[in-house]
Please model this.
Amino acid sequence: MTITRREFLRLSGSAAVSVSAASLKKASTTDLSQERRSVSSVSATGMQDFISGLHGSAIRPNDIEYETARRIWNAKYDRFPGLIVPCVDAVDVQRSVMFADSEKLLVAVRGGGHSFAGHSVCDGGLVIDLSRMKTSVLSAERNTVRAQPGLTGIELNEVTQRVGLAMVLGGCGSVGIGGFTLGGGEGSLSGKYGLSCDNLISADVVTADGRLVTASSDRNSDLFWGLRGGSGNFGVVTSFLFRAHPLTNVVAGQLIYDVAQAQTTMRAYRNFAPTAPDELTTGLTWTFLKDGPALLIHALYAGSEESGSKVLRELRALGKAKADTITAVSYHAFNRANSGPPPGFASTVRTGFVSDLPNEMIDEICEIGAHIPPAAELEMFHLHGKVSSVPLSETAFPLRYPGFDCFAAAAWLRPDQREPVTRWVDRFGQVLTPYTSGAYVNMLNDDESNRVRAAYGKQYERLAAVKRRYDPNNLFRLSPNIVPAA
Model:
């Protein structure tokens, strides 16, 4: 079942909610700098009409569920939305979008709630919460899975691995598949199978005018192009159709090095990474173990121990590891072991993409890594293989050449830790900046709206044109926001 704008207005019947064709035309020319309104501005009648038509529920500030529902993974953002709508189907999403558009409300869209920049929640506005939409339908014959946006990576993995299919998933299993995919979706199978968005066949999307449309290579192809890397700028995806891959066993784990071995190991890895086969996806990670800072090489080979023996032997020869956990393991177990950091801690991040790791950068990173805080991670994830073989023009994802997606993220466990933790992360950002050529938008921070254009590079103007067509008034501005073209 779908609902049209006309049906919505007929059902709502309230002067406070209804909008005429003339007012809609006027709204299309609204100054984009205009502030969106708070839910408190909506009349009682308008609010009741909206809520009564939902198939699911609505959560208001006085409701007992509100405290839990308003919180997201990153506790840095302690925000108080005026209304939270836990949608149960596409109709609820349509009604919510139309309501927000007609009332000119600030809108946040929440899937897994993992946005580093806090885009999953807002103050005073409406949160369209997709976390209850968790249906999935598998086709083992076609190697596809249709999944709703409330699923997390670890939940989708549970479903697909039952029938021996694997998805490109991120390193943190509690991340929602929606935001992950729309921003690109880098994962441990990316060398062989590309990004999550490269495996997207089609998507059902509620656009800013309340229409439910299907986007694919032959239907609304401009929107489909924008969804694959353009983040949540164009609408609310209510269903994804993915291509999956027959895969149940991998060879995966970590090589762990003392700080004294870091510089030599990083330089050797830098030279090795461009030669790695597509089956091998790797990255460098600085972390804080129980005995202090350490450098890790994390690796996944999408194949058997026998077929991967030569390249894994070369990987192990890059340095003298103090521990080696690389072994044959089920892909299911590999993902279950990577649920990610627990929610409820405040954190910050800096990111950038570099095509190489020059010696000067390695030296500075080693200095920063040696002083990593306890609840922090510094990662240089290698993009190559299938990711780099997709033409830049095919999707909105901008990082289509081999290189390293780098980021540092850290949490503070007490208020007095915020300043030193933030200073450490910012120091990494300063070191990275001279070498950066783009960025992975899923890792941009909340104070980096000025970096969105640079992150997308050559893709930005085309993205702005798609934005103008599908969201001309910038309703979906809580994202790595692309401003509609003039």
